[in-house]
Amino acid sequence: MAMKRRKLGNPLALAVMATLWQKPMHPYEIAQTLRRQGKDTSTKINYGSLYTVVQNLEKHGFVEVTDVERQGNRPERTVYGLTDAGREELTEWLSDLVAVPVKEYPIFETALSLMGALHPDEVVRLLRERLSALEVQVASGRGALEKLSETLPRLFLVETEYQLHMTAAQAEWVRGFLTEIEEGTLPGVDGWRHFHETGELPPEFTAST
């Protein structure tokens, strides 16, 4: 099942529509709500471009002006609401994202695919540094999740829970991979080390070329 190509691909547009699904708001209130509900921990939110995103959503008919607030000498605030087309787009887009796995390209995966350019002893040192940072993230993440759970239903914390689970899984994998390098049980590690110490590329490293 392929992911449908959408008129707007910016995840911030999705976050804005999901926020307006709650009630009509002006852009400043949208930004406040996203912050208050912690959506900036799961979505890369550039608040400076939020007004542009709202304008693009209006251009495509997904949101519309529902009111213009005037309070004394304060500047006018345009209130936007979700249109029927916007509700349909929100539902379809979210359904796609939940149901269809998409290949993503985390930079750590890129680094792992190219780490042969580093000496295995250096990789061990660097991975130990990473593991230490991951363990701190897991510990602080658990504390934060427990604190938030006191006031928020789990439904509103599932993305934080997922992030914590993924960080813990990465830490577990790094820990095991480190052991394989250090104990010499990782297939190819001797050739990897030999190359960095002699400059000679082992036959098994060139077999696929």
Automatic annotation (TrEMBL):
Lineage: superkingdom = Bacteria
User: What are the Transcription regulator PadR N-terminal domain coordinates in residue numbering?
Assistant: 17-92
Q: What is the name of this protein?
A: PadR family transcriptional regulator
InterPro entries under this entry? Metal_resp_DNA-bind_regulator (IPR052509), Tscrpt_reg_PadR_N (IPR005149), WH-like_DNA-bd_sf (IPR036388), WH_DNA-bd_sf (IPR036390)
- What species is given as this protein's source? Streptomyces incarnatus
